[in-house]
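Methods, example record. To illustrate the input and output format used throughout this study, we show the complete record for tRNA (guanine-N(7)-)-methyltransferase. The sequence lines were provided to the predictor; the line carrying structure tokens was produced by it.
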Amino acid sequence: MINNVVSVKFDKQGYAIRRIHTFRRRQGRLTKRQKYALVNLFPVIGTPYQIYPLNLQKLFDRIAPIILEIGFGMGSSLVEMAAAYPEYNFIGVEVYLPGVGSCLASTKERNIYNLRLICHDAVEVLEDMIPSGSLSLVQIFFPDPWHKARHNKRRIIQPSFIDLIGNKLALGGIVHIATDCKSYAEHILKVISCFSFFRNLSVTGDYVPRPITRFPTKFEQRAHHLGYDVRDLMFEKYL
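The corresponding predicted structure is encoded as:
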């Protein structure tokens, strides 16, 4: 049903390649609803990890712009967005099983047909499953900031990852990132600004107002309650 969230890859000499993981290995207890969804709904709404590109037209049984969300958590905002924009196809990638289960259940309960889920490491999904130039939008909302300096290397937003996203986006495609961590926002701005094929959509050269297309999450509400500012960054691939 669901593969391991990471796969073992080998170099040309046959040695296993050690990769830095950008997510915390946490799972938590599954509710009955989540267990049922993982067993019964994942075969229909979910897509197992594979080492070759997806046929996106076959996956959705239609041609439409593709929006990829990385790390959707419990999936509430992703489900809302898919319901609000039926003219788009959505792919959600998450390694947290309770979140995948909840999102599967909500998708079924609301009769949403334009959303597919993958339970696997996002870097490997992008590398192996997403065809080049196929995405209209990549959204990453509230990625783990890995606050400690020695853990900063685990942040998902790194030059190699942004280069990978750039390859998967179509011309005119957008990467949209939101974070409540000021230092991470500054890091993201610095990293993406180094790529000549991206241009910042902010008129001030840094952050944009929250688009109405990004539905608020419980995580974001908690951040506001604690007095944290949420920063949205949007870059367009124009070369």
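Annotations derived from this record:
The two ends are 39 Å apart (CA to CA).
Strands lie at 66-70, 89-93, 115-118, 135-141, 169-179, 198-200, 231-237.
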